[in-house]
TrEMBL record:
This is TonB-dependent receptor. GO terms for cellular component: cell outer membrane. Residues 1-23 form the signal peptide. It is found in: Cell outer membrane. The lineage of its organism: Bacteria, Pseudomonadati, Bacteroidota, Flavobacteriia, Flavobacteriales. It comes from Formosa algae.
Length: 580
């Protein structure tokens, strides 16, 4: 132990001395070797351990003794009788039956009648055939109206749908007849209209529509609509509308292209002024709208453009239209705050049928031309305040050329009809005028979904119009608002309410006589509130009863100048569902 310690200590001392000699200057101090002697003290770990391996006899330890087992069987009395296990029964609810066919019938005040029959039949699980028949009619009965104000609307439609693995297509066709009366005449012409039996007019719409959708191809969808719309005054038009969508991959990117082809050709049956020929109109429109969608994290951007060429028919001008088509959205805070905006434009194809659905009291003397929606710029924000409350706020600015406006026809100064025979010539019908309109729009929407059974919503819209040719943007309100609510209770009771508000509108009284037409005055049509409530009860899967209350406030407001509506209305009925 002493030697070992010496061997370790000596090099360490030598190394230390060398270091000191290297780092210090030479001095007179002499170095000596100090030997430290420590007495040896043995420990247990230093003891020599003897490893002994015991000897064993494998023959003695590996032999197993045989063991004999004897079972003494003694019977034991027991009352336990085992039985087979039996699964507990779970009562299965009967699946609800849904019926695709139904018949609805309702009747109410003012002789209002509504009825609808819809039947469908499936063939081989890939095809189905359906038919629909609807009827709406009213006896009128509006106070202070000297002419019949009843109306009738009848529609018959057939449809066939076929679904296959890679393609789904459908065809349908129908005929619709609408009958309305020009009852908005002023009392000063009462004597002139007493002997006139032609106080109403009929619209007829004969149409065929085909749709097809493809899977796993570049061509995604296509639709074609063919209509023949006419009235009993020999006004009529033919309208062919084709739309298609193609998705083309270009350099690992997909370009969506919408294709549009429209043909419109029509004429008015008569002229409001006997000295002027009845107008004719028509055009052939072709357009393409390619667009590319860019997605980056929370940003979605659609970049595209639209190009249209319109070939004029019947003295209509030919034009080339180019529009931007850019829209985008950015998720600022997931679904809580989403900003969006866009700059778009389009050609709006107007038609006699489209105008007649917006205003049923047109004279059969109108001229039709398309509207150039030069651009529509908007910014908005939508999202959710909570999981149950959503919102949408939008500001926009639009510029439209040849926007269609409804304005009253001229009054005859002589007291006789403007065209000498028909009742619509007393200033109680409407014509279409066109103007360049710029509009500033503000929109607010709020949707509340308390649970699966209760939904509510609010929509308010403000518009400021600036016209170029006309004194006002005729019959366009500055304010529109609506509130709705729907409630469903345990698939039995259901109810709903809708409240509409339309602000003040402007129209014009024009007096004509002795070949002179002069504006008599600009009139204001008061705004109105229309409250509608409905409720119903599902007696069974087949039978449902309902009750509708319309115009609850009872205000016989003017929808158009001199065209008041029915007051408080009540209508009740039932729906029966069935299968073949």
């Amino acid at each position: 132990m002493y030697k070992t310690f010496q061997y370790i200590l000596t090099p360490l001392v030598f190394l230390l001395c060398a270091t000191v000699m290297y780092s210090q200057e030479k001095d007179t101090i002499q170095t000596d070797v100090i030997n430290v002697v420590k007495p040896y003290t043995p420990t247990i770990s230093d003891a020599f351990k003897v490893k002994t391996i015991p000897t064993t006899d494998d023959n003695a330890t590996s032999t197993k003794k045989p063991v004999d087992y004897n079972i003494l069987s003694v019977p034991v009395a027991s009352t336990f009788i085992p039985t087979k296990g039996k699964a507990a029964l779970v009562e299965r609810e009967k699946p609800e039956l849904y019926y695709e066919n139904y018949f609805t019938l309702g009747y109410g005040s003012y002789g209002n009648l509504v009825s609808e029959l819809y039947v469908t039949k499936e063939f081989n699980r890939i095809g189905s055939f359906g038919a629909r028949l609807t009827q709406e009619m009213s006896d009128g009965g509006i106070d202070d109206k000297i002419l019949d104000n009843s109306f009738t609307n009848t529609n018959v439609e057939l449809e066939y749908i076929k679904r296959q693995r890679d393609i789904t297509w459908s065809v349908k066709g129908g005929l619709e007849r609408q009958k309305y009366n020009w009852y908005g005449i002023e009392n000063r012409y009462e004597n002139a209209t007493n002997d006139n039996e032609q106080v109403g007019h009929n619209y007829y719409d004969l149409y065929a529509i085909g749709d097809v959708a493809f899977d796993y191809t570049y061509v995604k969808s296509a639709s074609v609509t063919l209509r023949r719309f006419y009235d009993e005054f020999e006004s009529g038009e033919n309208h062919l509308n084709f739309k298609g969508r193609v998705d083309l991959p270009i350099v690992d990117q997909e370009i969506t292209t919408n294709v549009r082809l429209e043909y419109l050709n029509g004429h008015a049956g008569e002229s409001y002024f006997q000295s002027i020929d009845a107008p004719e109109y028509g055009n052939l429109l072709f357009g393409v709208s390619p667009a590319y969608q860019l997605r980056r994290d929370n940003l979605t951007l659609n970049i595209g453009a639209s190009a249209y060429y319109m070939l004029g028919i019947n003295d209509t001008e030919s034009n080339l239209y180019l529009y931007p088509n850019i829209t985008g959205s950015f998720r600022i805070v997931d679904d809580v705050v989403i900003a969006y905006g866009g700059l778009t434009g389009d050609v709006e194809q107007n038609s006699y049928r489209k105008f007649s659905q917006a205003n049923q009291f047109l004279s059969p003397t109108i001229s039709v031309r398309p509207t150039d929606n030069s651009f529509n710029a908007y910014l908005g924000m939508l999202g959710k305040f909570t999981n149950d409350i959503g919102y949408n706020v939008k500001l926009g600015y639009t510029s439209e050329r040849d926007k269609a406006l409804f304005r009253k026809n001229a009054f005859p100064a002589s007291g006789t009809s403007m065209n000498g025979s028909h009742v619509y010539g007393y200033g109680n019908s409407f014509t279409v005028v066109y103007d360049n309109i710029k509009t500033i729009q503000a929109l607010v929407e709020l949707n509340v979904e308390m649970n699966r059974n209760l939904k509510m919503g609010l929509r308010a819209e403000y518009m400021n119009y600036q016209s170029e040719l006309e004194d006002e943007a005729w019959n366009l309100p500055n304010i529109k608002a609506s509130v709705f609510g729907d409630y469903l209770s345990d698939n039995k009771w259901f109810a709903g309410a809708k409240i509409f508000y339309v602000g003040e509108r402007k129209d014009q009284n024009v007096l004509t006589g002795d070949n002179v037409t002069t504006p008599e005055s600009t009139i204001s049509i008061d705004g109105y509130v229309d409250v509608n409530v409905n409720a119903g009860y599902n007696i069974s899967n087949r039978f449902t009863v309902f009750l509708n209350l319309n115009n609850v406030t009872g205000d016989s407001y003017e929808r158009w100048s001199n065209y008041n509506v029915q007051g408080f209305q009540i209508l009740g009925g039932a729906t029966y569902k069935f299968d073949f």
